[in-house]
């Protein structure tokens, strides 16, 4: 369960920005004490104008996840750190990038973070808070300077010697079977799933749905959710497919290069099998590639959503509204907010332009004020992240209308008079574009 994420010097996030997943106390509720485990929200959404940095917040969390997963095993020795600093001034490339996440697992709160430059890990730390009291598990100052807490145990010194200057200690510890750090690695890496709206990521998500469709009990649930989406589909099934050997060999080469570069890439199962969809009320079956983008997105998201909800994991989705009807997008969010469905504390973190989620047109208050965050860029191109809760809107305030009217910022400003002026002065005999 995520509680807080802090980041600095990652793409447009130049200055340190903090995203909180902790619920804001309602009126009349006591504020939690420092020793208390805070109550987190099940859903967090980010809104903002195009190019304001919404996706960069999600990308920063994804990059941190990838660094923990891959720095020890896949980053080249002596190859430095493939980070993504702020590039719109001279300071960004020369300043370390910073990432820190607070999370809850097995009833204990932890804080893990690190700083990196282009060459090495400048700092790394992990603290636990049993009974609310801070305890140092390890601290790292520079590539080789370590301090380990007495409670950590394990072969800490040996693992430190095996950790390169450009690799994270947590990544190395997991690869070398450290018992307690390996479990925390699983929480940060394996239990957080990412979804982006591109063809490769869609194929990766569909592979998860495909595995569920091959399990009779899970297939029944997936198909029921498919029918309820009112897409004109009766069911989906997995059938064998064929692919020429030379095409599969080319795919393997491309996949190897992509994975070494940190790019998420689907597995070979997409070529060995395919999903066929049965149209309701007919004997017609179609390959999923022949269906609409909205159908493919819904089916691909079902697998990730079911796995996340049942396991109590975290799902991070960029452009959750992409190709989905607002009712389907809001349904995904309501699934995470419904305590009967989300029984294991799963969380959904998404970016969106769908303002209907801010209002009550689709349902009574889909998103609460502490579940909504905004991004806005300043004149230098740097992103600022802030919460709707900072504005303290009234309980009866129309959030959707207020956002679109610019009451909270984070909306684009277009001077329509200037647009009209451009067309007024446009040459009337411009050549027609060629076909």
Describe the 3D structure.
Helix 3 packs across helix 4. Strand 1 (2-8) and strand 2 (17-20) form a beta hairpin. The chain has a 7-stranded antiparallel β-sheet, covered by helices on one side. A 6-stranded mixed β-sheet has the order 9-13-14-3-15-16, with helices on both faces. The protein has 12 helices and 16 strands. The chain has 2 domains: 1-191 and 312-435, Rossmann fold; 198-311, no CATH class. With 435 residues, it is an alpha+beta fold.
Keyphrases for this structure?
435 residues, alpha+beta, Rossmann fold, 2 domains, 7-stranded antiparallel sheet, 6-stranded mixed sheet, 12 helices, 16 strands, globular
Beta-strand percent range: 15-25%
Distance between the termini: 52 Å
* Number of separate helices: 12
Q: What is the CATH C-level name of the largest domain?
A: Alpha Beta
Helix content: 25-40%
Under CATH, the topology of the largest domain is which? Rossmann fold
The radius of gyration over CA amounts to 24 Å
**Element-level helix/strand string:** EEEHEEEEEHHHEHHEHHEEHEHEEEHH
Which strand order do you get reading across the main beta sheet? 2-1-4-5-6-7-8
Assembly status? single chain
What is the overall silhouette? Answer: globular
- Let me know the number of strands: 16
Average pLDDT works out at 87
Main pleated sheet: 7 strands, antiparallel
List low-pLDDT spans: none
Would you identify the CATH architecture of the largest domain? 3-Layer(aba) Sandwich
